[in-house]
From TrEMBL:
InterPro entries assigned: SKI8, WD40/YVTN_repeat-like_dom_sf, WD40_PAC1, WD40_repeat_CS, WD40_repeat_dom_sf, WD40_rpt
Gene Ontology cellular component list: Cdc73/Paf1 complex
Gene giving rise to this polypeptide: LOC111285021
Gene3D superfamilies per the UniProt record, alphabetical: YVTN repeat-like/Quinoprotein amine dehydrogenase
PANTHER family per UniProt: SUPERKILLER COMPLEX PROTEIN 8 (PTHR44090:SF1), WD REPEAT-CONTAINING PROTEIN 61 (PTHR44090)
Keywords: Repeat, WD repeat
Source organism (scientific name): Durio zibethinus
The protein's name: WD repeat-containing protein VIP3-like
Chaperone is among the record's keywords: no
Entries under SUPFAM superfamilies matching the protein: WD40 repeat-like
UniProt cross-references to Pfam families, sorted A to Z: WD40
Positions annotated as WD repeat: 14-59, 60-101, 158-199, 200-234, 244-285, 286-321
């Protein structure tokens, strides 16, 4: 039987930002440098960090409101940051040169992710209840995937606000997109046909984070919700495979290790948890943070590092073994 992964605290940086740290992702390694950790904060900055010492490489300024999301291109060469100022800034990771600025209506960008091949940036769009797809060669908007409105005589404004989109994830083959909404529904799209396929039901509160399992289980989708649960879905078969609970409050972030063997979550209960699929339970709880944990992210490749960021302004880095 495979042994379970364990986390050990490696390094924490207090006051990594001047305000809450809302978002984090890893920029893949290139031929000339290792993977870097990318963080974004309410303090309007984006920061790049060296992996093990968490040494600050650079601070990017330019947003005039808090940074809600950062995303890295699979090549490791470019990345993007999105802010409440409704701008998405695409930049060269090593030089900080601005490659493109994508404009969105106010509070229309909550999460974004590059597809696995790096040809498209998916931007999950708040009140428009849609995902916008940007071509990374031309930086033109190429498609808008809209969540169907609930059927009814007169859709009320209330029902439309519940479809507010908070999260987005690509399947590993780039053929499917999942997005999570304020009302707890998860919508699955066929990207090539720009077509809505179906909803995944089961959560009743906002779904703030989604991640697909790596191949070969690439139809498996993990979701994190304010209802305190992590769900495991068969995204194609529309079935819920399992539900895991253990956090004492909202689950704000979920990520899966590159080998698909472990799942990590961050919560407003201030903890990071590591989960075992077979036991459907948390096997480890890390209490490094003193406030809610907005993001957890495994380093791509070996998956031997996990990072977490929090409202307490700190970053924690863990060794995964």
């Amino acid at each position: 039987m495979a042994k379970s992964m364990k986390l050990a605290g490696l390094k924490s940086v207090e006051n990594a930002h001047d305000e809450s740290v809302w978002t984090a992702t890893w920029v893949p390694a290139t031929d000339s440098r290792p993977a870097l950790l990318l963080t974004g904060s309410l303090d309007e900055t984006v920061k790049l960090w060296k992996p093990d010492e968490l040494e600050l490489v650079r601070t990017n300024t330019g947003h005039c409101l808090g940074v809600v999301c950062v995303a890295a291109h699979p090549s490791g060469v470019i990345a993007a940051s999105a802010s409440l100022d409704s701008l998405v800034r695409v930049f060269d990771v090593d030089t900080n040169f601005t490659i493109a600025t994508l404009e969105a209506p106010p509070s229309e960008v909550w999460q974004m992710q590059f597809d696995p091949k790096g040809t498209t940036l998916a931007v999950a769009g708040g009140g428009s209840a849609s995902i916008k797809l940007w071509d990374t060669a031309t930086w033109r908007l190429v498609a808008t995937l809209s969540i169907p409105r609930p059927e009814g005589p007169k859709p009320s404004d209330k029902s439309s606000s519940k479809k507010f989109v908070l999260s987005v994830a690509w399947s590993p083959d780039g053929r499917r997109l999942a997005c999570g909404s304020m009302d707890g529904t998860i919508s699955i799209f066929d990207v090539a046909r720009a077509k809505f396929l179906h909803h995944l039901e089961g959560h009743y509160m906002p779904v703030r984070s989604l991640v697909f399992a790596p191949e070969p289980d690439s139809w498996t989708l993990y979701s994190a919700s304010d209802d305190g649960h992590v769900h495991i879905y068969d995204a194609e078969g529309k079935a819920i495979i399992g539900a895991m609970s253990g956090h004492a409050s909202w689950v704000l972030s979920v990520d899966v290790s590159p080998d698909g063997e472990a799942l990590a979550t961050g919560s407003s209960d201030k903890t990071v948890r590591l989960w075992d699929f077979k036991m459907r339970a948390a096997i480890q709880t890390m209490s490094n943070h003193t406030d809610q944990v907005w993001a957890v992210a495994f380093r791509p490749g070996q998956g031997d590092r996990l990072a977490s960021v929090s409202d307490d302004k700190s970053i924690s880095l863990y060794h995964c073994s």
